[in-house]
Design goal:
alpha+beta; Jelly Rolls; eight-stranded mixed sheet; four-stranded antiparallel sheet; 12 helices; oxidoreductase activity; Clavaminate synthase-like protein; metal-binding; IPNS-like_sf
Length: 372
């Protein structure tokens, strides 16, 4: 991507003057342009109208931003707890794919539990993904599910960590939603009321493992997509996440190109999902992104990520809300409730690919709508 695409946007906080690398891992290459994410501060969001305005700008223009969690009690807890998940992840995946496959619930129509390596199509060529992940349901671990799924013992041994991380992640989500609610001039508490902690929803923690790829055959690990929830909180330590900036953030005459998002120590990456676009009639942006092999020497490392997906409550209808900021318009088609819509999005590519030909996998990708 052209360097001017990066430097022409929001340079008010320059993280290059600070060493925010991860000392135990190979450094992110210095010669690779990185995506134009605003860097916000959680502690500043508590009191600064200017920081709140920057949050709204980031949510409209790119739908991705860094959030500096340092020097804030909630933020420091999330940093500490995410570190514990990075310690837990290797032990969890040491259980092995055969054992973890017992907790793959796609045949029950659920996206919770385990997704095996190479079990989803990632591009129009029919290539398969190169990661595995486990979705830990909020409702199961907070005792909200009528019929909770079985999960590996190692997760139950870490119930306190999981529950606390869910509570803290949700507290951060609620704070961000309160700022967006205000800027959208919605009645007080509107967005927060659609995302209550103790209501049934598709909220989850996801632990992702992406092993090193062969140097001669490095491909997409997770195909291009937008998130289909409301807000995503991402912790990662190695590069690999890429975004495709919108035309509005691309210099005139240039085509948008995939650009790495550099991980920053003490920060999480926040991005908005499709539900927020639907609620706001397109005022807020859900941006396309994907995961590829980490750049440079980082490609030799196993890449772990810890994600919290916040989604609207199951019974919430995904339709445009009404305010003076949100443009009026029809809610296209029959609006679905969150449970139905999210299940549809999550399961589009979660089909048995082991016996499918390349042509059949290509057709799966086309039918998913992700190639558009």
């Amino acid at each position: 991507m052209a360097t001017e695409t990066i430097t022409s946007t929001h340079a008010s906080l320059n993280h290059e003057s600070e060493d925010l690398s991860f000392p135990t891992l190979p450094p992110f290459p210095t010669n690779i342009p990185t995506a134009p994410l605003l860097r916000l501060s959680l502690s500043s969001l508590r009191s600064s109208p200017e920081e709140s305005n920057r949050l709204f700008t980031a949510s409209k223009e790119l739908g991705f931003f860094y959030l500096d969690l340092r020097k804030d009690p909630l933020g420091e807890e999330l940093i500490s707890q995410s570190s514990k998940f990075f310690e837990l992840a290797p032990r969890f995946y040491d259980l092995g794919r055969e054992e973890l496959s017992k907790y793959d619930y796609k045949n029950l129509g659920s996206y919770m539990g385990y997704k095996g390596f190479g079990s989803a199509v990632v591009d129009e060529k029919g290539n398969l993904d190169r990661n595995e992940f486990y979705n830990i349901p909020k409702d199961d671990f907070l005792g909200l599910s009528e019929r909770p799924f079985a999960h590996p013992d190692i997760l139950h041994q870490n119930t306190d960590l999981i529950k606390s991380y869910i509570h803290n992640s949700h507290a951060l989500v609620t704070l961000l939603l309160s700022h967006l609610n205000s800027h959208l001039e919605l009645p007080e508490g509107t967005l927060q009321s659609l995302h209550r902690l103790n209501a049934i929803s598709g909220d989850q923690i996801r632990m992702i493992k992406s092993p090193p790829q062969p140097a001669s055959d490095q491909r997409t690990a997770l195909g291009k997509h937008t998130d289909f929830g409301s807000l995503t909180i991402l912790f990662n330590r190695l590069g690999g996440l890429q975004i495709l900036p919108p035309p509005s953030l691309t210099p005139a005459g240039k085509e948008p190109q995939w650009t790495y998002v550099k991980p920053l120590r003490g920060h999480c990456i926040i991005n908005l999902g499709d539900a927020m676009t639907k609620f706001t009639g397109g005022v807020l942006r859900s941006n396309i992104h994907r995961v590829v092999s980490p750049p440079g020497e980082q490609a030799k490392e196993t890449r772990y990520s810890v994600v919290y997906f916040a989604r609207p409550e199951d019974e919430v209808i995904l339709r445009r809300l009404e305010s003076s900021v949100i443009p009026k318009g029809d809610n296209e088609g029959e609006a679905m409730n969150s449970k139905e819509w999210i299940k549809l999005q999550a399961m589009r590519l979660r089909k048995d690919t082991t016996e499918k030909s390349e042509e059949e996998r290509k057709r799966l990708w086309e039918e998913s709508g992700r190639g558009n």
